[in-house]
Design brief:
Number of domains: 2
CATH class of the largest domain: Mainly Beta
Oligomer: single chain
Number of helices: 3
Low-confidence stretches: 64-71
Number of strands: 11
Order of helices and strands: HEEHHEEEEEEEEE
Strand content: 25-35%
Shape: elongated
CATH architecture of the largest domain: Sandwich
Mean pLDDT: 79
Distance between the termini: 107 Å
């Protein structure tokens, strides 16, 4: 009987099995390698690398300098200055026009950065081309941009002459 127990202990069925996780069993050489898993991992790594490198290789966005934004000829906004802080209920907007004899009218426009919609705030049809804008409540305590459109007598429209005036901060009284 003793021999029988020793034979059973030496038999392969009774030898202690290594670590087992689910259907995969650890062998003497370690965990088995799944070739399908290795291929899937390599493809995943290539996709991630492609997604990271692709934007770096694409065409660069051209950055427009402030001087390039101010290419519309026909005039220049002289007041207010960009970044000005206004602490009154009115804002004087002045436009210096290159050829005032050709101008039929000038429209002044403003937008808040919060909603981004341009609204016409006034119109002037004779020199000097300036507007005393009474600032409405929906523009107070906000940063705004202003611009102008020059309508000439020959039906041409010059939009944004001299560029916009940006970052004007309106504070309520």
């Amino acid at each position: 009987m003793y021999n029988l127990l020793n034979q059973m202990a030496d038999s392969p069925e009774k030898k202690s099995v290594g670590e087992k996780r689910g259907p995969v069993e650890k062998t003497e050489k370690g965990w088995p390698i799944n070739p399908v898993g290795i291929v899937a991992l390599a493809l995943f790594a290539l996709v991630i690398i492609f997604l990271i490198i692709r934007p770096l290789l694409s065409n660069k966005t051209q950055i427009i300098n402030v001087t390039e934004q101010q290419v519309a000829k026909g005039g220049q906004m002289t007041s207010p200055t960009a970044g000005e802080i206004v602490k009154s209920k009115t804002l004087e907007i002045k436009l210096s026009i290159d050829e005032p004899q050709k101008v039929q009218k000038v429209q002044f426009w403003a937008k808040t950065y919060a909603n981004g919609k341009w609204q016409m705030i006034g119109e002037v049809s004779s020199a000097p081309f300036s507007l005393n804008w009474r600032i409405p409540a929906d523009f107070q305590n906000k940063a705004i941009a202003i611009t102008s459109h020059i309508y000439q007598k020959d039906s041409q429209i010059i939009k944004d002459p001299g560029g916009w005036r940006e970052g004007i901060i309106i504070l309520s009284q």
